[in-house]
Design goal:
Shape: globular
Mean pLDDT: 86
Helix content: 25-40%
Strand content: 15-25%
Order of helices and strands: HEEEEHEHEHEEEEH
Structural class: alpha+beta
Distance between the termini: 56 Å
Low-confidence stretches: 1-38
Number of strands: 10
Radius of gyration: 17 Å
Largest sheet: 8 strands, mixed
Strand order of the largest sheet: 1-10-9-4-5-6-2-3
Number of helices: 5
Amino acid sequence: MFNRQTLLILVAAIAAGLGLWAAQVLMSPGTATPSANTASLPAVDPDRLKAVRLFPAPREVPTFALQQSDDTPLEPAELRGRWTVVFLGFTHCPDVCPTTLTDLSRAQAQWDHLPEGRRPRVLFVSVDPDRDTPAKTGEYARYFHADTLAATAPEPALEKFATSLGLVYMKVPLEDGDYSMDHSSALVVLDAQGRQVGLIRPPFVPDDIAADLALLAEVAP
């Protein structure tokens, strides 16, 4: 039978689902706000891309300030120079986060042979700063792959970063008094200029992600 706590969790889950849907609508190609520098998206035939869905025009990412696992700031300049895949999650995640990071680690393994300057990277951002310190976030992310960048931030900086990428998250109370986090499952793709240029939606196929990012990094380093 449903009790009040179960009802609250159900309402929260529905709200989260609506939020994720709204974010995807806002980030769809028809509503994306183009970057001032539309010169551009890489000259890649979209049919060659199996995982990445490119926007018609890149989107500038507003200024942000996260904290990396080594306590240094993560700012826009840090994400320029190489293509980046951004994933939101948290270290207490029971399924989606470890599964996604495992898939990404398999893609990362296929980039090891690329020159460092052209090697795509993964950025894991924890949306649970109350429990995930920058150091803990980094330890968790590097368990899956040593080269994964990791960061988090207190509110409201964290929410500002997430929403600037069209991603959402929310705290969901559990019956035992603890809580979990609902968050967007899509991966955001940033180009070497640090602009948002596309999305990767589940289900994730590591080989496809690896091939797409390697191709994009080659034609638009």
